[in-house]
Amino acid sequence: MGLDLDRLLGSLGMISSAGKLIYGEKLFDQIKQSKIKLVLTTTDMGQSQLKKINDKANFYNIKIINNLFDSTTLNKAIGRSNVKSVGVSDENFVKLLLKNVE
Q1: I need a labelling partner for 57 at 20 to 30 A (CA). Which of 65, 75, 86, 88 fits?
Q2: Are strands 63-65 and 38-41 parallel, antiparallel or unpaired?
């Protein structure tokens, strides 16, 4: 099927409205508690932060997808500002996102 960016961004907006989208410092805490099922990062995320979040996700065996879109596109979709990475805490929403990515 391939990447369907419009559907992916629409799904992220819905997940955000449902309260299952985690970002900021909470994201690292939730990763440590193994409550995050999928992490998405942006193309314009700083290298040190990208390495930090990749290392955390890999250590806790959490699927991570890097560089799908830039932060402006992500922030517009979720109605926030200055968010560079997000985590999804619901397994069913993860399935929905992966269907739009793979």
Answers
A1: 75
A2: parallel
